[in-house]
Amino acid sequence: MIPSSFYPPEANELTVLCRRVHNALNKHPKYLTKGKRAQLDWRAFGNSLGPHFFDFVKKSGNAFTLLEDPPRFLPSDGNWPIEKQPKIEDAANLFARGVSQVRNNIEHAGKFLTEEEDQEKRRSLTLAREALWVLKVAIEKHPDSKDLFAKF
Predict the structure, then answer these.
(1) 63 or 29, greater pLDDT
(2) What is the distance between the alpha carbons of residues 60 and 80, in angstroms, rounded to a whole number?
(3) How many CB atoms lie within 10 A of CB 142?
(4) 128 against 114, higher pLDDT
(5) Cα-atom radius of gyration of the chain, to the nearest Å?
(6) Residue 105: per-residue pLDDT
(7) Structure confidence at residue 129 (pLDDT)
(8) 8 Å CB contact between 11 and 71
(9) What is the torsion angle, in degrees rounded to the nearest 10, for the CA atoms of residue 29, residue 20, residue 59 and residue 50?
């Protein structure tokens, strides 16, 4: 196991907070996918925040990179794609393709462990900081915050 000290504090905080949100939302069926195996539906969570939340995030400027140049995903061939992902245009994708993808890249794709270029390291840190900010604001502003996150 790789010690958490290899990761910036923001990356560690994001992964822990995502885990806590995931556990809280797992107790509410409207945030789970349908089918044989229930999984967290980040799109449903984003949609529950509504377009006003997305507008707030966009206007804040605190998630510029996350929205304009979203994180890529690591394909099965193990090579990061060169092409950019489409911009994020709504709250559902802010969580499905933004926040959760940043977390997945840290936890499963070796972000902060395999990067060699300073520019890529800075980008990963920016994405982690922005995703963390978005998730904290979502917890604070969610219309069901007291019910969903009472045990935070």
Answers:
(1) 63
(2) 29
(3) 18
(4) 128
(5) 15
(6) 86
(7) 98
(8) no
(9) 10
